[in-house]
Inverse folding.
């Protein structure tokens, strides 16, 4: 099956609004965008640092493989500064792609 990782699917918000978490499709497009677009993109080391901060500096349980969006956003704000272009790019892309649940 072909998937357009460039598109704004917002699958959960448009197809399953009762859900309270993002779908795999929404997360796929989010990760593709923040890894591939613009000067503020995130590389492997950035993702590793964000998740490490979200797990140890936030209230996320790293043993469950699930880290809530708020923990990820807070981790980015801590690492890069909440008003930095890199943090704003992360937050805005999460909203655009529908993972900010």
């Amino acid at each position: 099956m072909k998937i357009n990782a460039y598109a704004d699917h917002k699958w959960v918000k448009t197809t399953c609004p009762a859900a309270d978490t993002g779908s795999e499709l929404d997360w796929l497009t989010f990760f593709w965008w923040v890894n591939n677009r613009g000067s503020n993109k995130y590389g492997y080391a950035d993702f590793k640092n964000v998740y490490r901060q979200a797990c140890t500096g936030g209230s996320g349980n790293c043993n469950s493989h699930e880290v809530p969006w708020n923990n990820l956003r807070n981790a980015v704000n801590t690492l890069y500064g909440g008003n930095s272009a890199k943090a704003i790019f992360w937050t805005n892309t999460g909203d655009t792609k529908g993972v900010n649940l």
